[in-house]
Specification:
Distance between the termini: 29 Å
Number of helices: 5
Helix content: 25-40%
Largest sheet: 4 strands, antiparallel
Radius of gyration: 16 Å
Shape: elongated
Number of domains: 1
Structural class: alpha+beta
Number of strands: 10
Strand order of the largest sheet: 4-5-1-10
Length: about 160
């Protein structure tokens, strides 16, 4: 029998830093809009970055430190999504049961830690070839006033109505 699950999503800004062809020049930041057509390619690289080939794998949930939280979470999968022509980071969390507001706060802290010092830091250390450019991709917990946040029902509905997947 299949286990009933609940899905919760957190969105965050992304940063793209391009390594120039000329080694004498400095790396430079490029807008997330510039790479919007490469979402599928980037998602494939994300999956390959920590070996998730089986959809039943737990992803970043294996690194949850809080034992009570870990009992409720079955999967945490990072990805990117195209929102109105700009790539955004997405952390999809699969749960066995709903989280309290306090647990959501604890989960946000755990995700921030993974993005800043765990998987996200490792993913950002290597360049990836996207559209013929070597790029460092960072999932940011905060940038220009936007921070890692839980998607609410309105955001999900608006995306679906706008034809975004």
């Amino acid at each position: 029998m299949a286990e009933n699950t609940i899905e919760m999503k957190f969105r965050c800004p992304l940063e793209f830093v391009v390594e120039p062809e000329d080694v004498e020049k400095d790396c430079y930041e490029v807008s997330a809009r510039h790479f919007s057509e490469y979402a599928d390619e980037i998602n494939k690289l994300i999956i390959e970055s920590f070996g998730i080939y089986d959809p039943e794998e737990c992803g970043l949930a294996a690194y949850i430190i809080d034992d009570d939280l870990a009992e409720k979470i079955t999967k945490i999968i990072p990805s990117v999504e195209n929102i109105n022509g700009e790539l955004r980071g997405l952390m999809t969390v699969t749960l066995r049961e709903n989280l309290t507001e306090i647990e959501i706060g604890k989960l946000r802290k755990e995700l921030v830690e993974q993005l800043d010092n765990g998987w996200g830091e490792d993913f950002n250390e290597e360049t990836v070839n996207i559209g013929g450019k070597y790029v460092y991709i960072s999932f940011l917990c905060a940038k220009d006033g936007e921070r890692l946040h839980v998607l609410d029902a309105d955001e999900t509905i608006n995306q679906t109505m706008g034809g975004l997947s």
